[in-house]
Amino acid sequence: MKNKILFTIVIGVAVIAIFFMRKPTNNTDFIPVNDQGEQYFEELDLQNMKFIYIDNDSILIDIDFKQYNINEDSFKRNIPRLNKMNISAIQKDYFNTKYSVSKSRLDFFINNRTEEQLSKVGLGKPASEYINDLFPLLQLVVVRMEPIDSHHYNMSFFYTLRGILEEDMYLVVFTDEDGNSPEIGWDT
């Protein structure tokens, strides 16, 4: 009993200390604040963002073609090839790794949808019974460039499921500038 009381007192003191030690601001919201106490946001360069259309799909790309001397038309022609490579990497990760990000993400996605939502796209529960029907539903929605230095970059390919809106989490394939060395992850 003494330990519980002592633990409660220590936690209470720690919370009060944190409250008094934090930097006072006039803001009551949780917007990030820099060292000078001013709000800041990640700068988005909207001039590099545009939609491209491939096979009736709208894909948002965030790529600085000029800085990296990339031929935009050639890049667009390569998207279907890169997309196939990425979906193949997702399938390989799903079936062949001990801890599979794509398996946990796709299983979570299916298991947290209603039967009605899933039936609209030909899926159901449990996820393991419908996984082969799921891969063709992967839809590339965003391609983003992640600069490494002034001459090299990595690519991020964001996927969701066609026919089911999933706007808060994406399955992501990270590759080098040639689409090689894929790593699977997720992003919000």
Rg, rounded, reads 22 Å
State the total count of DSSP E strands: 6
Oligomer designation: single chain
Count structural domains: 1
Report helical residue fraction: 25-40%
- Which secondary-structure class do the elements indicate? alpha+beta
Biggest β-sheet, characterized? 6 strands, mixed
What is the beta-strand fraction?
15-25%
Cα shape: extended
How many helical elements? 5
Widest beta sheet: strand line-up: 1-2-3-4-5-6
State the end-to-end CA separation. 43 Å
Summarize model confidence as the mean pLDDT: 78
Q: Which consecutive residue ranges, at least 5 long each, have pLDDT under 50?
A: 24-34
SSE string, helices as H and strands as E: HEEHHHHEEEE
Structural commentary:
This protein has 188 residues and is α+β, with helices and mostly antiparallel strands. The protein has one domain (46-187). It has helices spanning 2-21, 72-96, 101-111, 115-119, 127-134; strands spanning 49-54, 57-62, 138-147, 153-161, 170-176, 183-187. β1 and β2 form a beta hairpin. α2 packs across α3 (101-111) and α3 crosses α5 (127-134). The two termini are 43 Å apart. Residues 24-34 have low confidence and may be disordered.
